[in-house]
Fold:
Amino acid sequence: MKRSQVLVAVIFLGLSLTAQKQFDQTFPPDVSAPDRLRTKRTSYSAIMDVLRPTRPRVTQAQLDQLKTLPLESIFGALGDYRLNYARGFTNTRPGERVIGRALTMRFLPPRPDLVRAAETVAKEADWDRRYYARAAEEAQPGDVIVAELGGAEGHNLFGAMAATGIKSRGVSGVVIDGGSRDLAELQGDAFKGFPVLAKFFHVTTTSWVGVEFNAPVHIGTATVLPGDVVVGEDEGVLFFPPEMLDRALTAATETERREAYERELLLQKKYRFRDIYPLSPALREEYDKSRKPR
Amino acid sequence: MKRSQVLVAVIFLGLSLTAQKQFDQTFPPDVSAPDRLRTKRTSYSAIMDVLRPTRPRVTQAQLDQLKTLPLESIFGALGDYRLNYARGFTNTRPGERVIGRALTMRFLPPRPDLVRAAETVAKEADWDRRYYARAAEEAQPGDVIVAELGGAEGHNLFGAMAATGIKSRGVSGVVIDGGSRDLAELQGDAFKGFPVLAKFFHVTTTSWVGVEFNAPVHIGTATVLPGDVVVGEDEGVLFFPPEMLDRALTAATETERREAYERELLLQKKYRFRDIYPLSPALREEYDKSRKPR
Amino acid sequence: MKRSQVLVAVIFLGLSLTAQKQFDQTFPPDVSAPDRLRTKRTSYSAIMDVLRPTRPRVTQAQLDQLKTLPLESIFGALGDYRLNYARGFTNTRPGERVIGRALTMRFLPPRPDLVRAAETVAKEADWDRRYYARAAEEAQPGDVIVAELGGAEGHNLFGAMAATGIKSRGVSGVVIDGGSRDLAELQGDAFKGFPVLAKFFHVTTTSWVGVEFNAPVHIGTATVLPGDVVVGEDEGVLFFPPEMLDRALTAATETERREAYERELLLQKKYRFRDIYPLSPALREEYDKSRKPR
Amino acid sequence: MKRSQVLVAVIFLGLSLTAQKQFDQTFPPDVSAPDRLRTKRTSYSAIMDVLRPTRPRVTQAQLDQLKTLPLESIFGALGDYRLNYARGFTNTRPGERVIGRALTMRFLPPRPDLVRAAETVAKEADWDRRYYARAAEEAQPGDVIVAELGGAEGHNLFGAMAATGIKSRGVSGVVIDGGSRDLAELQGDAFKGFPVLAKFFHVTTTSWVGVEFNAPVHIGTATVLPGDVVVGEDEGVLFFPPEMLDRALTAATETERREAYERELLLQKKYRFRDIYPLSPALREEYDKSRKPR
Amino acid sequence: MKRSQVLVAVIFLGLSLTAQKQFDQTFPPDVSAPDRLRTKRTSYSAIMDVLRPTRPRVTQAQLDQLKTLPLESIFGALGDYRLNYARGFTNTRPGERVIGRALTMRFLPPRPDLVRAAETVAKEADWDRRYYARAAEEAQPGDVIVAELGGAEGHNLFGAMAATGIKSRGVSGVVIDGGSRDLAELQGDAFKGFPVLAKFFHVTTTSWVGVEFNAPVHIGTATVLPGDVVVGEDEGVLFFPPEMLDRALTAATETERREAYERELLLQKKYRFRDIYPLSPALREEYDKSRKPR
Amino acid sequence: MKRSQVLVAVIFLGLSLTAQKQFDQTFPPDVSAPDRLRTKRTSYSAIMDVLRPTRPRVTQAQLDQLKTLPLESIFGALGDYRLNYARGFTNTRPGERVIGRALTMRFLPPRPDLVRAAETVAKEADWDRRYYARAAEEAQPGDVIVAELGGAEGHNLFGAMAATGIKSRGVSGVVIDGGSRDLAELQGDAFKGFPVLAKFFHVTTTSWVGVEFNAPVHIGTATVLPGDVVVGEDEGVLFFPPEMLDRALTAATETERREAYERELLLQKKYRFRDIYPLSPALREEYDKSRKPR
Structure:
């Protein structure tokens, strides 16, 4: 089709399309925000305004069960949330896992007006402008601090003093898409059971400015919403919504059980690998029988 | 000092400090947000709630003057905002500059609940969930689209069709901390005067989800607030608040004038370099004379 | 379930599973290869042995039509082959595209025994051990040389002399997951119409050893089979099987036509963006009408 | 010399050169491959067809001796094979070494036709399309699995279940130019003596397609042939042909002996460093005497 | 101002500026260096010629006190020297620290004339061309070897034999902006108390050429002068001039004391975080009291 | 050999080795440097003290001939200096080459004492502490500025004003292992014939401190000595000693001549590639005849 023909076609369609919205739309005026909205402890987020009503709070019992399951089995139970995964962290406590509820923070690079505004809000709200201090005052047992902080080119979240304060509130660990200071101290015995997963460690103090607290963030290519389930270890970190947890626990537990059976079979060296993993129909039948109460 | 001494000290100070806030503070209840706040065209941001009242709107005349000044002279006039700079972009139109007012967007990696929430809000607000479509409907002449999109590991903002729509609204260019598709088409003549600075180009369609529109974002290690002045070119991009623009224009213009004088002197090959750049007292005096009306 | 129960279960299932293959299987002896198989010009590949019978040869007419279509429209027509895409190349001829049939080569890092074996085969087969020389003797018009060569940590494929020889055979261009020398010469007028996409350019001569000719290779995260359709440009390169070409041409042509229409509509500034891209039902109807012969 | 002179020279040489092969050579027809060649367990490779007859099989005794020697002493004994070295791995078992015979695998990124062809071959050959399953059925004691899998931008080879199966065959370890899943499990006690060296660890399942089994591959900038000697540790991995092993054992053992002597001398703090390392003529004489039977 | 006006101004100022130095200055002849300057053990450096007279020698007592203080507290006491910090090292002895006086070395990539010159100087001076051998002969107890060696694209400094020699002189550790060999051996018990911090580990022998010994070098973005105080650990390395050490010890010790107090308060869970870190006026008063002799 | 035997051997060799130098050598006192050595314009370098007497000064005629030869032909004529090559630069003037004599500079990261010392020396010597200013006063026609400045993590050398001053002295171009500012201006017409090859471009001013002027430096993995021949272009930069230039010119010119002949033959499409490149004995004979005077 030649360009001129297109033009002709376009010209002729004008009349019949009066219902279409025009190029220069007029938009209705925005609703205005209440005066003190900016001092809400949980930063306002349109996304969470939609989602929060249907998100259950993860219980400690659920978290305890989660701790017994390997990362890969949980991954296998997450369906479309599988890809919501981040890696490339250094764990201050290799081998220790971070499991809990996401308490999220978002930071931006500092500049004078941003710092001034953050200070204004902090003063009005009577919280500390330093978000690590807020975590040390506001976090709940079972929380995991999840901080969006610029990744490899970002900045430090905190040091060991803030980590002490945060740990003292029962927080399970910290995931930082950015850095931390005090590596040596965080590796010490005082921080057993409190792993910090960070992209780097640097001696410097903090500088980026906290701008949203418990609102949606991203850690690498994973989105984290406040209240998400966090399962992290040296390999990487999974984040998924709390409403998936029961299903994930069931599926991962079943995976674990079947894989324990398969592992035993492998160690017996009786059957070839492909008949065990996955189970051949015959072995599957045996497995199913073995699970029934006798 | 031994640890035991510290303990003793701590124990004894209890009485005199009753005014201190306790470890387990109780916080006042949060104000609740109005029902339709989530459909505000300009996403609610506590930071902007503080700053917006004192931020002027950059005029076209200011932008026109800005276009005559090199990046480095503007940089030199920015004081504490100098470091608010991002680089590492590929320019679809090498040598063309991006100058205008920041219209910002923030994106997060997709996951089912996030997509669902964004769709809900879009439907309620009668805007398109695709933020590039919103830009093609809502942007104003002189705007520069500034999109936080995950950097080198992020995703695409748009392709040439959206670029056509956005350009047709008088937008001056686009800065993406992430990618774009349709590199070849954006390099074509149809996009003259509409440079796109992106971290990468990829054939794929878009996938990340727009979650904030005209709220604070970061591009690499620079914070960008909606309405900021944007000055970008192949070397990198400066972002600074509009209230600094007049001062920056004056200072950068004076720098340009003096450097033009210095350049002429250098090409004359009469004096040694260090007496010209910076001007020696004697040459400075001559320069000052040359500027007076005669 | 406790571990001991698993063991019990495993022990009891022995009898009923005699049909299962044992851990230590015995395998039938391999067929032996004919003496001169190693001198086949098209290296033997089990994968191609399966696929080749059903792969048509791409015609010049198809390639000519392909040249009129942008990369992104072709991408949109590729279904499950969309992800078979590689990027990160520098094009010696920015803006020129590489379109044709893949002639593939695979190289390995040199070591004395490998060099010796490659020389033995070359002598027996009467070809040149240097695969770029083979391309300059064996390539056909419309071929695109596709070389797996170690990526960013790999080595050079060739220099301008070999490029001259290869171009003289009617080859359309070269895609190297590795390097090339003679950047300046390849940018010169003599190589117009012969783009080389490489990961890097380096002054050194070649060293890696060609081990397979016209057998499956990978270029970054894309698999390339000999005879694949190659569509490359500055943004990246698509590879897909020849049997998909007709369908891709049809679909991409239709996309182009519709997008031309949409582009015209956008430039008219009459309707809002989202009603044009994608076309609203009303505009779609107009578009469909415009395409009918009148 | 001017260009025209070259042309004259070229034109005149035609007659005397009739023996030269022409630009458009005709090639003899290729030998055809036997029907079932594609189901050979050891993939057909022209290179191995030349080399295999003269490559001895490494014995367990040789491997045992190799385990007593440090990587650097073996490196020093490898002559032109020194550079056949790869590094950049993470070892699941820091400090444990991988020593054995290379069982190689080559993988390509998945696409529908490739997957279909691999499945066809696997069915015909009665092996498992998953190459990790083949390793768990076909590997021999003392083998080391060496997988070419795309490096840092590649994919996972396997997880802990396959590792269990492979380990149960007496395999000494795994070297992956790509990734693995189940890091935490592979670090557990069950995998003592079975180090996995990979470029990265990721929670995802496998996707790349095995296309050659026990044929030449490359791991970074090192070529690995099936049956090669593999010596790997945290620092990196050496690969060299089995026919070099006896010589390497002798030379490395002598190096070790001399260096033990030098180390003792250093710790004595009697002589200056440069007279000990390397041994001065006088100390060399003493050393030689010390080695003679007395 | 138009360009022509500038030119006029420039032309007229010629006369009054005769005191300015001319474009083509004549420079006084250089002083000639004494014959044997090139064999000075401490390489001649103009910078050190200025600074050395006022730089004290760090004492062992100072170093011993330094060992009791964490990196971050020392960092906090360094003022403008804080940024003189390097990171990105792998520590052969994770958790062990490198503290001492910098003995610096600078290396350049090898080329025939450079090697020849280095050999000539070494012969004249009666030292070993290999700088690691010089360190093993010339280093003093408490020294830390600091080698500028090309960073990630550089080369190896030494292996375990040289490390044995260097350690035997009482050297505290080694910081290499480049590589080392013999990772496994350096991790062994024989090297307890002798951490090597390097950018990478590689099996190869050394090749870069030592050109300056105990002259200024840089390690990443930190400048190191001979005699500087070095404090390194897994997180990174600080370098600062010896004249700052006393002040740094005092300030860091005070920081430690206060932070111990704060840590105790945090663990008491009595006051909210922000009143403890930093100490509120009331708590500060208590702290000050607690430090007074009672 | 057992460890105890080594010990015995070591103990017994004491007597016969009295001629060996002891562990704790005493070194002769160093020669002292003359007072004003630190103000030598050409920084003192032990390496250059050895090499300078035998290094000729490259003539303009040689440089002019060099400009006619491609990088790769010169590379082929450099023997052991081939590897003295650096790449990874962005050229401000793509396609333009940098050819000349190296005027080298070495920079270190700033810290207060280093800045103070550099200022002291500059004042005593009456030169400008800014080394770009020194280049703008001291460089000679045909020089190429070669600056070691920290590579990708380093800093800026200069901006357009200094470039103007340096260009005005007849300098041929600049190679920076570090950055530059004023990219846009350097790409302008005023800088035609003055290419700047840098690792990056950044808006910031300079900060690293010049510490050696015309002394040995390295650019990536290449060593550059003052007075070296520099041949750079988009692909990379070769550096080699002036005494090799005549030989390189002869060899590269002959290569060019032969390759022109080969290129003509290739374009004739008469003979197969391998008989032309390299020339078969018969064609070689024809070529040799064609070169004789007739």
